[in-house]
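Handout, tutorial session.
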Amino acid sequence: MVDNAKANPIVSVVMGSDSDLSVMQEAIQMLSYFDIPYEIDIVSAHRTPDKLFQFAKNADKRGIRVIIAGAGGAAHLPGMIAAISALPVIGVPIRSSNSIDGWDSILSILQMPNGVPVATVALNAAKNAGILATQIIAVSDINLLNKVKEYKENLRDEVLIKGSSLSNDQNKHNS
């Protein structure tokens, strides 16, 4: 299920099941926003261990620079990829149908042993994973870094406008 629309992907977005796609779509949207070539696939740590091993072992050889891995429940996918690959792995804990309020997923991804790091975003926060992957790549790409700076400035401006609007509304009600 590799997304062939993006030639020469540098970010791989993988998930343990197709039911995770609705969450992982936000990472894909952010990568698209920043024009980062990506691929998507389903790689289950438990149901396709041979595929997982080959994926993690060969991702760097295919030009991948960052891996975003989303998983729910026991959520072994990000950690197993990090155990095999030297690439940075960003884990997205997903609140799934068999999840214990998402805590099992969070802790499975977050509590990695020393030597096998996984950058972990908040529960269902695939958007942040897409932004973090972009920031990692932007370290060596000044144009991309400037796009990230612009994105963050836009976030700041949105908050300032909303805050100003609230202040103006409050002043009108107090008059």
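The second record follows below. Compare its token runs with those of the first.
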Amino acid sequence: MDQVHELVNGYSRDGTMLPRSRSELYDRIRDFTVCANKDQLLGCCALHVCWDNLAEIISFAVRQDAHNQGIGSLLLHASMSEAQELGINTIFTLTRAPGYFRRYGFVEVNKDVLPHKVWGECIKCPKFPDCDEVALVREL
């Protein structure tokens, strides 16, 4: 979990992602899919089930030196497949990199269509209500 914490929070230092505490990561440890080479973490992605038919892609990160190797694509596809296996038809993400997700069929939506996210978690965020992340959804 230390490597996941370092990777995710490394991206939070430049504002790309929101920081995650160790406690948050441990609370969601079963949500994570990771890609590693031996004992070196290359990337991670978590699928967090929010509601009956809704899940969120969170803590999605690939090490800078592992970009352009298809790791992000593998992680995202694994999360989408898991959602389908769970019978979840809608996944979403809040991101500062919307172009990446658009390549995988995600479309931008107003955050108002995600009330479970906004009132369940976003309200706790230090950036609320002035969030600069883009909400994207994909139907599976």
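Points raised in discussion: The helical segments are 2-13, 22-27, 71-85, 98-102, 115-120.
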